[in-house]
Amino acid sequence: MYDLPALSLFVVMLAYWGRVAAMSWRIRRRTRTLSGVVPEQSLERFLWWFFVPVVALWIVLPLLAGTRAGGSAALPAIVREGAWLALRWCAVAVAAGLLVATIRCWKRMGRHWKMAVTPGERQVLITDGPFARVRHPIYGYQVLLMLASLAVVPTLPMLAIAAVHLALMLTKARNEEAYLLGVHGDAYAAYMARTGRFFPKSPR
Asked: Which of 187, 83, 99 is nearest to 135 (CA)?
């Protein structure tokens, strides 16, 4: 017997990272390079060693939980019924909504979307649409998506990758901000002052 919420999350994660892979392939086909896809900075290369396994486990763990695999990936029996089950289905719906919100961000970025900082290249500063109040809405949605994933698959392995993922997002966002501040100067400083990193600033 399968666990449908976990398998539904697996489908969402396949759609999410499949879209990322497709966009990366388009960059490779358009530019004939891996610039903007594979990290060039030493810090981002270091983060890559953690990010790739996190993404792989993020996809695999819901599949293992959904097929009732044994070991530490297995779901506790209590979460497969009653209020816990309802909560997990709500988290699946939230995850699907976050995927849609992220696609909106990707569409706004268009050809300017990249996975990695590209030193020496002056990137366009996008400050409207989903980016009007948040500097890194994609990362913010990704953090929420990880929390939704943890609600659907509440296991120790998922908790571990959630903790690593949060540290990676914070480090990557700060690194990108430092880079963009150096490239765009006062324009980016002003943008930082009026926006939140992952979520909108609270009104004062």
From this structure: 187
